[in-house]
Design goal:
Elements: H1 2-44, E1 56-58, E2 64-67, H2 70-73, H3 84-94, H4 106-119, H5 129-138, H6 145-161, H7 164-174, H8 184-192, H9 201-209, H10 214-217, H11 223-239, H12 245-252, H13 271-283, H14 289-294, E3 298-301, H15 305-318, E4 326-332, E5 339-343, H16 368-377, E6 385-388, E7 393-394, E8 400-401, E9 413-416, H17 417-423, H18 426-436, H19 438-447, H20 469-480, E10 491-495, E11 501-504, H21 515-525, E12 553-558, E13 562-568, E14 573-579, H22 589-592, H23 594-607, E15 621-626, E16 642-647, H24 660-682
Parallel strand pairs: 1-3
Antiparallel strand pairs: 1-2, 3-10, 4-5, 4-14, 6-9, 7-8, 10-11, 12-13, 13-14, 15-16
């Protein structure tokens, strides 16, 4: 037994020696590696403190329309010139062991790995202040392992060549606080109109919470989220022994007065458009906020600066200066989806909320072209007759719905589809909607790119579900271009400051609508400017027809709170909305006409000097002259004839017989002519 025990002890001792040898070698290698990295870092010297590269935005003609101005929004100050509260708040929430580690917090990294594994996704960060400063200096847009390795080397270089206070000073001068603001001094100026040395505990805690998500935690974006984040920072300061519980609670309840960066704002071209471009860079192209703001990007946009200037001028000329009504305008090329002009409100500095891309408003009758496209799909033609009269519809659930026409005007007779869209007859629209099935309109709207949630109700035919102006412009572009899918395009190309192409827009020719039906729908939309369709009321474009010098298709829409005009030529689609931001109705007669007047003035001036383009029918479409009131083929007796287009095989075959008086008059004239002829022949 003793022999066996001795043998076991010998084996154990042998394994222990091997383990100790392995541990020694591993420790030696680790020590040598760390020593080598430190020697390398010392040999390399201090890393270059890279100056942020401004991201520059260009119009389609190469004109610079915007730039991040670091001279005005970035100030480097000494650590001694910063409020101690700002320093402590930052350390408490970002890196509590900053003065104890050598660039990497191994315990924090291990904790983050465990948390991420438990959640099966990235839920916890472990970057130290030094690592974040290294990232700010590195200024790379690439998210690769090579970048992370280089950042780690930068971190080691920083720790090996700079004092902790120098690193902290650099970090606080380069960190991003949102709204194009970098560094604690610029942030203090922008948010509170004061120097960083004068920040209170409450102000410092508010600012320290922003860098985690500048567009999410900014108090100018969402005060509730910002206040929650401020409390987290204050709690961290208590845990770090920088504050007492009582001091933290007092700071949390301290009223804050924001300056909104008024004195730091600079005038830019098309600010609403530029905001939309930045949003596209982030959401569609995947650039992070730091890269967008300080990555040295060169962004080549679709903006036509002449059209943009015309849009802004026409809005200013049309809307009374004392009116509080708001406006949105989007102008797009229908074939490419390129956005040529965009206005999201009357004054960006007073309200940066972009009503063209963010607001959802009831489109009213501008929704009807979608309905009538579906109707054409299901057997309707421009000549389809339905009665226009006061009607109460009884629905499947037993409830009733009674739509009303504008000013309670009704034909009290049958009218054609062509008349219904030109006169914007609501009864005709609801009848059509219910006959087709309410799901059909929802389906086509989604196919056309309407992103809002749509209620499957009878009133949807009259545009009662709120939508975005941008979505409506896109939907009309698809109809205007013959049914090809388009997305709003703001950016043609993005390069870095060295000229390397990071993104380039690709064309898309996917056909999503029947081109013949899209054309017939387009021609139906020319009816709002055609007085031959007047019957019991004027066509809805009557008030602006005198200013039109070329063919247009379009549709207006009005609700109690919204006024729309969307129309196009083959070259340009423009959507205009006017209304109030809050629950206020449009009661003044002149305000009800603002959208139409802005639209026609913008279109006429934007297209002046360009070739007059007509709507050319594609294959599968035939044009015939019809009597506009009966929808039947016109005869010589018809006093008015209108060229109407139909999908081949659906054109009318019956001739109009509704004008006996005209026939009688012509017969008498013919008889008189014959009698005179005989008389002259006799002589």
């Amino acid at each position: 037994m003793e022999t066996i025990a001795i043998e076991r002890w010998k084996r154990t001792f042998k394994y222990m020696r091997l383990f100790l040898l392995f541990a020694f070698v591993a420790s030696l290698l680790c020590t040598l590696t760390i020593a080598g990295l430190i020697i390398f870092a010392k040999w390399k010297g201090p890393p270059p403190l890279a100056v942020p590269q401004s991201t520059i935005f260009y119009a389609e003609d190469g004109t610079k329309i915007g730039e991040n101005h670091y001279g005005g929004k970035r100030y480097w100050i000494k650590l001694s010139d910063m409020s101690q509260h700002a320093i402590e708040a930052t350390i408490a929430v970002e890196d509590r062991k900053f003065f104890d580690h050598y660039g990497f917090d191994l315990k924090r990294i291990a904790g983050a790995i465990v948390a991420d594994i438990k959640a099966m996704k990235k839920v916890q960060g472990a970057s130290t202040i030094t690592q974040q400063y290294a990232r700010n200096l590195f200024l790379s847009y690439e998210k690769t392992w090579w970048r992370k390795i280089q950042e780690a080397l930068y971190t080691i270089q920083l720790e090996a060549n700079y004092e902790k206070n120098d690193i902290l000073e650099g970090y606080l001068n380069t960190i991003y606080y949102g709204h194009g603001v970098y560094g604690i001094e610029a942030a203090a100026n922008f948010y509170f109109g004061k120097s960083a040395r004068d920040l209170t505990v409450a102000e410092a805690a508010m600012l320290a919470g922003i860098p985690k998500g500048p567009s999410y935690y900014s108090p100018l974006v969402d005060m509730e989220r910002a206040k929650k984040r401020q409390r987290i920072v204050l709690h961290s300061m208590v845990e770090a022994k920088f504050l007492s519980e009582k001091e933290a609670e007092k700071a949390a309840n301290e009223p804050l007065h924001f300056s909104n960066g008024e004195h730091m704002k600079t005038k830019t071209i098309a600010p609403y458009f530029q905001d939309a471009v930045k949003q596209m860079l982030k959401t569609k192209l995947g650039f992070d906020e730091e890269t967008i703001e300080m990555g040295g990007l060169r962004v080549y946009t679709t903006l036509d600066i002449d059209m943009q200037a015309i849009a802004e001028a026409k809005i200013k000329e049309t809307i009374h200066s004392q009116s509080n009504i708001q406006v949105a305008l989007v102008a797009m090329e229908p074939k490419t989806g390129e956005v040529k002009a965009l206005v999201g409100g009357r004054d960006y500095e007073k309200s940066p909320f972009n009503r063209a891309t963010q607001a959802k408003r009831q489109p009213g009758s501008t929704f009807k072209p979608f309905l009538y496209y579906v109707a054409l799909q299901h057997g309707f033609t421009p000549s389809t007759l339905l009665r226009s009269e006061p009607t109460t519809f009884t629905l499947e659930d037993g409830s009733t719905y009674a739509p009303r026409n504008f000013n309670n005007y009704y034909a009290n007779d049958t009218i054609t589809l062509a008349q219904a869209i030109a006169l914007s007859d609501n009864v005709y629209a609801v009848k059509t909607h219910l006959l087709l099935g309410q799901d059909k309109l929802v389906a086509i709207a989604k196919q056309l790119g309407i992103t809002s949630k749509l209620k499957q109700v009878p009133s949807l035919a009259l545009g009662t579900s709120p939508v975005k102006v941008m979505d409506m412009a896109r939907a009309y572009s698809i109809i205007a271009n013959g049914g090809k899918k388009v997305e709003p395009v703001f950016i043609k190309k993005v390069t870095n400051f060295e000229g390397k192409v990071l993104y380039e827009q690709q064309s898309n020719d996917e056909q999503i609508l029947d081109p013949a039906l899209a054309f017939v729908t387009t021609h139906l939309m020319t009816g709002m400017f055609d007085p031959t369709l007047n019957d019991y009321a004027s066509v809805t474009g009557q008030s602006i027809m005198s200013r039109m010098t070329r063919p247009y298709a379009g549709k207006s829409g009005t609700t109690k709170t919204d006024s729309w005009m969307i129309g196009f030529t083959p070259q340009l689609v423009t959507a205009v909305w006017t209304g109030y931001d809050r629950d206020e109705t449009i009661d003044r007669t002149d305000e009800k006409q603002y959208a139409k007047h802005i639209w026609v003035n913008f279109m006429e001036d934007s297209l002046r000097g360009r070739k007059v383009a007509t709507f050319e029918p594609p294959e599968g479409v035939v044009g015939v002259y019809v009597d506009p009131h009966s929808g039947k083929l016109a005869t010589t007796a018809c006093p008015i004839k209108r060229l109407s287009y139909y999908v081949v095989g659906t054109e009318p075959t019956d001739y109009c017989k509704d004008h006996p008086a005209e026939k009688k008059k012509k017969k008498k004239k013919k008889e008189k002519d014959s009698w005179l002829k005989r008389l002259f022949d006799w002589f």
